[in-house]
Design goal:
The protein is α/β, with parallel strands linked by helices. The protein contains 9 helices and 11 strands. The relative contact order is 0.14.
Amino acid sequence: MSLSSDDIELFLAVIDHGSFSAAARALRRVPSAVSMSIANIEAGLGYPLFDRSRREALPTPQARVLEPHARSVASRLRMLQIHAVELSQDLESTLTVAVAAGLPDQDLLKALGQVGCRYPLLRVNVLRIPQDQVREMLHQEQADLVLLPASTDVNREEAFTYVTDVLFVAVASATADTLGLPADLRRLEDLSASRQILVAGPEDTVADRRLLVSDARWHVNTVEAALGLVECGAGWANLPLEAVEVAVSAGKLRVLAFDNLKNGVAMPVHLVWLRRKPVQRAAGEVIELMRGEQR
């Protein structure tokens, strides 16, 4: 026998209210209909669910075994019903967020967690990928929201809200000789003779050229890979200060010092979305939560 959602609701109502008559009142049915429906369920199962020898309807051992599973199914059905209504009220079925690798995203993850609690069946995809691929995903409408450093060019297709500032610093290995790096490094331009490890896609075109110094570059798609290569001396890198602090403190990396300028490029970080694409419910709530963090 297969139990319907009505069967499960009725079964749990009798358990929760303690009698057929009380369950009938809660469900706005007549007691005889409740008693007959339970009897039909029991006949289909081949065993009793309630002991009728007393005034109260006491669940049998078999009913107690079924109860937690029935409650789980009932809960999922309620969430499904709520989600079905939400979808009709402009809630997207999936929210995809892309983050430029290495950027601090704690506030964004916190906002996603809050929205996820409101909409339990909403699917959320969070991707950490190179900055140039993040913007590409946005404009190809493969991501609803993206977190990335502010562009030097104004793009009228993009809307954004400010999130934070990030300081990118040039780092090299503290334990190994870095290929091509002068022992007496004094100026930023001296880095041009050394290989730069860049968090970027495999294409040679790099969207944001503010952090480029060397013509010789290795491209990697994660900050972790960049840190590993820099640590072993394969090259130097411009990375967010927050991403390198642990390795610097552990004596694995060193922040380079220059005579002609201070090491560090400060960049504002924005949460960005497309103007041409309507912002749906969950994405809009994430945006408002991120704006609230800045107030």
